[in-house]
Structure formats: structure tokens, C-alpha cells
Design goal:
Helix content is 38%, strand content 17%. It has 310 residues and is α/β, with parallel strands linked by helices. The strands form two sheets. The protein has a seven-stranded parallel β-sheet, sandwiched between helices. Strands 7-9 form a two-stranded antiparallel sheet.
């Protein structure tokens, strides 16, 4: 018997599918969108070159075309799905308010769209945008995704994040004051980080008022500063077994009500340098399930407080 209460299958963590089904009582799919924004650490506002692992691969189609292409694929698998428009590429609040309104609302007007996920940086939501997001949150299902990656300043400087942990925590507070849901991105396997450092990042987040998390494995992709660093210094790349163990340790520390939006990544095979094991996503997810079952543990077992029935 599965001891984890936020589950309707064998998962021992709070899956996004479970969360959406409980909230909307139907199948919900996210459609990834590239609105052709840039980033403040690309254009020189706070830095140049972007994060060292990032590779720019802009989608040539406009937002409506991107939506329709993906919708046709999803409808073939799951007819009558509802959709969330996911502004994924680059920093999706880094533009004038008029431009943001035009892009967001053009997607909201599409059929069967029930909400938006907007991925951004904590240093790229000004007061005017924050007020608009508050209005948006009242008329649709809104989630803001904040890239943190690590709480460790030395690592953040190495990967060229160009914002502070203080900036991140301040934005979490501001968004939650507006009752806006937050999903935080972190990366395991960043250069020279130990497992203890990765666990410290999760312990820090477990104390914040966040609603979801995305856990990524570091991908080294071609033609990025990270590839050059790896070729020069050959820092340790986590093995599949190491990654599974670390993720399970992190899940055990996260409060049970935090929704797990992602536990690994989806690299483009042709661009991937290391590690090759991330290509087989199902092996990663099955490995996590098996390890939690072997331990007889689940998300939140070592978090403060007990599971609360949803």
C-alpha cells in the first residue's frame, strides 16, 4: 500500500498530473511557448552571455502557430484536454507592460486555455508587472516559475546567474503577498557542488511559501560556456545512480503539499554532450519510484510537520 496521501497511483511524491486532476477534474496539458524574449544577463543589463548552460534555440513560429502545432499532437493522445500556456524560453516578464499584456492575453484567448505558467527571473518583475500579474491571477489560473538553481553564491557566480539569493526570497514574498502561486527551478549536478550543497538548497526552499518545484539534472550541451568549462576542467558529472539517490533524498525533505513539476530534463539529443543517461527519461523516473519503494519512504517523510489531507 502506498503511504503517500497525495497520490492516486504508485507515485510516492506529489505529481503534477495528480494536482491538476484534483484541481480541474480533467486532463490538463502544458503547451511550451517561445515568446522571443531575451534575458537581462544576455543583453547587458546585469550581465552578458546568459547562464553558462543555456543555449539559444528560438522557435521560428509565432505564439499561435506554436500552440496549434502542439495542440494537434496532444489532442491525438488525449482528446478534449484543457491547456495551460507555458511561457518557457528566456525571461518572460522582461519587456514593457504593453508587450507582456499583448502576448499573455493572445494566448489566454485561445480555445480551452485555462491558465498561464510564466517562467522568469526574480530580478525581472518590476512593480507595474507585479500589479498586472495580480490582476491576471484573479481572472485565470496563474503560476510564476522562478529560476533559482542553487542557494550557493559561489556556484551562482560560476554559472552567471547574476542575481542574489536575497533578490529571490524578496520576490517570493512579493508574489505570495499577491496570492500568486510559485514554482522554483533548481539544478542538481552543478559544477563542484556536493550532495550536501544540493540538499541545502532543498532544505532552504522547504521553509519558503512555494507551491511547486522543478528538479533538473545539469545538461552539458554543445556550443555553450559550460561545454568549454567541462572540456577544460572535467568536473564530476553525476551518474544515474547518484542522481536517483540525491533526488530521493530531496523528495524526503520537501513538504508533501509541494507539487513536483519535474524530476529530470528533456535535452535535445543532438546537442547533448553529457550525461547520456538523461536521454532515457523513463529510466530516471522508474529508478526514483523503485528507490523510494525500496526505502519505504515518500515525499515529506523527513520534513517538519505531518502530511495534511488535501
Amino acid at each position: 500500500m502506498n503511504p503517500f496521501i497525495y497520490s492516486n497511483d504508485n507515485k510516492r511524491y506529489h505529481t503534477l498530473n495528480y494536482y491538476y486532476k484534483k484541481l480541474f477534474n480533467t486532463r490538463v496539458s502544458k503547451i511550451s511557448l517561445d515568446a522571443h524574449f531575451t534575458c537581462p544577463n544576455l543583453d547587458g543589463k546585469v550581465g552578458f552571455g546568459g547562464c553558462i548552460y543555456c543555449k539559444q534555440s528560438p522557435n521560428p513560429n509565432n505564439l499561435i502557430e506554436q500552440f496549434e502545432i502542439q495542440k494537434r499532437i496532444i489532442d491525438h493522445k488525449w482528446p478534449n484536454s484543457k491547456y495551460i500556456g507555458y511561457f518557457q524560453s528566456n525571461t518572460n516578464t522582461y519587456a514593457t507592460l504593453n508587450i507582456l499584456k499583448d502576448k499573455y492575453e493572445s494566448v489566454l484567448n485561445l480555445p480551452n486555455i485555462i491558465g498561464l505558467n510564466i517562467s522568469t527571473r526574480p530580478d525581472s518583475i518590476n512593480d507595474d508587472v507585479l500589479e498586472y500579474l495580480e490582476e491576471l491571477n484573479k481572472k485565470t489560473y496563474l503560476t510564476i516559475e522562478l529560476g533559482l538553481q542553487t542557494i550557493h553564491e559561489k556556484t551562482a557566480k560560476l554559472i552567471n546567474r547574476c542575481h542574489t539569493l536575497e533578490c529571490f526570497t524578496e520576490m517570493v514574498t512579493k508574489l505570495r503577498e499577491k496570492n500568486i502561486n510559485i514554482v522554483v527551478h533548481i539544478i542538481n549536478g552543478l559544477p563542484y557542488e556536493t550532495e550536501d550543497m544540493m540538499l541545502e538548497t532543498v532544505k532552504f526552499l522547504s521553509k519558503l511559501d512555494i507551491q511547486g518545484i522543478k528538479i533538473h539534472m545539469l545538461h552539458i550541451v554543445s556550443n555553450t560556456p559550460l561545454e568549454h568549462l567541462y572540456n577544460k576542467q572535467k568536473f564530476h558529472i553525476l551518474t544515474l545512480e547518484e542522481y536517483i539517490s540525491i533526488v530521493c533524498n530531496q523528495l524526503e525533505l520537501l513538504p508533501a503539499n509541494i507539487v513536483i513539476h519535474r524530476l529530470t530534463g528533456d535535452p535535445i539529443k543532438e546537442d547533448l554532450i553529457q550525461p547520456q543517461w538523461v536521454i532515457k527519461k523513463v529510466n530516471v523516473l522508474n529508478g526514483i519510484d523503485k528507490e523510494l519503494a525500496k526505502r519505504n519512504t515518500y515525499q515529506g517523510i523527513f520534513a517538519k510537520g505531518k502530511q495534511k489531507v488535501q
